[in-house]
Amino acid sequence: MKLPRRRPTAVPMPLWLQGVFELGQAAVISAALVLIPVAAVWLTGGFADRDAVSAAQSAGHAWLVMHGVPLVLTFPPGTVIAGTTSGLLHAVPLGLVLVPFLLAWRAGRRLARASYTDQLWQAVLGALGIYAAVGAAVAHFSTNADVTVSLTAGALIPPVSAGLGIVTGAYREAGAWSRLIGVDLAAWISRTSQHSRWAGSYAWSVVRSAFLGVLAATGLAAVLLAAAVALHWTEIITVYERLEAGVAGSTALTLGQLGLLPNLVVWTLAWASGAGFALGTGSSLTPMASTVGPLPAVPVLGALPAGTLEFGVVALALPVVAGLLAGWWFFREGENHFDEWLSLKTSARWLTSIVSTVCLGLFVGLLAGLGGAALALLSRASLGIGRLTDLGPDPLAVALWLGAEVGIGAVLGYAMAPLLEREPQRRDA
Q1: pLDDT in tens, 340-353
Q2: Where are the domains of the chain?
């Protein structure tokens, strides 16, 4: 008599371990994407007399900078620059940050499929733990006599972009926050009063309108940057030819500029708003005039405007156009419950219409200014050398200029929207 064989039951992988595996894989892939171009430059003699360990440390520095980790540069003895022996190199290359973000986004979707409701935190905890450990290890390995990296910064900053990627990826897979955190927001909102729901709908529409204004202004700034690069393409190619970096060096330089491309778009947005930006201490680039000093040999800087611009003031219209789109969108959304509340308080329609429209412009402008300030803050950089410690726009100036222009545009867009939304009259047959 043969006994039936019992199939071994598979032991499911713990969620925290699966999180470690998923984001650990993302860390390895992102490190490889940095190591390959650095190795290509080193193999072609691009790092002079540096050995393999020094080149690997440079790759570690690049991986940390890609995640926004600041580096402390120590200058060799006898080479004091601007009266200092050290400097802070800090930048958040918004284009390169997308690499770990997208890898973590993929990991977040996979972890959401493997998790039950209220259990995603276990996978996220393991994922962020391994990414923090990798960041601390890279910071420890990359520290040498020329560059110092804080272990705390190396452990805490890289998980920020990875954590955002995991959360957005998990939400994209789940389709609702209730499946991730076990709280049904729609049911909670339905239990509130009607006035609270109206106020919430109005506030949410204002937030989305301001987001649209910032997004439209950024898109117009990207078009403006592309036009500037196209018009100054000859100057950019000339800088490439003077560098004589070879194929590997030119490729690495181009990849670095592409990684900073979103930063340059934000700088263009600041320029178009009138706030301008700086390329070194004492420099200023605005639509009215440009004053710059000696700049590093970066090809894309050949597209910078120089001197007094005769028609530069026209660029100030771009954020206003973005505000027009935001105000028009808010009218189409049909959630102006503040105007309805004012109409219940007084019968003077002309007064309630003016007050609600002006308040809309103030609210949208305030939020747009905060969004522009956040973008300006993220886009700022410091090379830690001499006067190149002040690169990028002033967040406060961007907030004031962009907020005012988008707010004015929102008022005009909302006021003009009824003229654009009229339905054509039908002719009787």
Answers
A1: 777 777 777 778 88
A2: 15-186, 192-420
pTM recorded for the entire structure: 0.87
- HSE-CB for 265 with a 13 A CA cutoff: 20
φ and ψ at residue 328, rounded to 5 degrees: -65, -40
Counting Cβ atoms within 10 Å, is residue 294 exposed (0-12), middle (13-18) or buried (19+)?
Answer: exposed
Backbone angles phi, psi at 80, to 5 degrees: -75, 125
pLDDT tier, 7 (very low <50, low <70, confident <90, very high otherwise):
low
Q: What percent of the chain has pLDDT over 70?
A: 85
* 349, containing H or E segment: helix 349-379
Read off the pLDDT of residues 305-327 as tens digits, 9 standing for 90 and up.
776 677 778 889 999 999 999 99
Q: What are the CA-CA distances from residue 299 to residues 29, 34, 55, 296, 378 (Å)?
A: 28, 21, 24, 9, 22
- Fill in the amino acid letter for 277: F
Question: Minimal CA–CA distance to 73: which of 54, 93, 55, 89?
Answer: 89
Residue 319 corresponds to which amino acid? P
Q: Which residue has the tokens 């590997």?
A: 248
Backbone angles phi, psi at 160, to 5 degrees: -65, -55
Residue at token pair 């707010």: 407
Counting Cβ atoms within 10 Å, is residue 251 exposed (0-12), middle (13-18) or buried (19+)? Answer: middle
108 in Cβ contact with 120 (< 8 Å): no
Q: Which helix (H) or strand (E) holds 308?
A: strand 307-308
Q: What interhelical angle do 246-259 and 233-243 show, nearest 10?
A: 130
Write out the H or E segment, with its range, that includes residue 392.
strand 391-392
Q: What is the DSSP letter of 421?
A: S
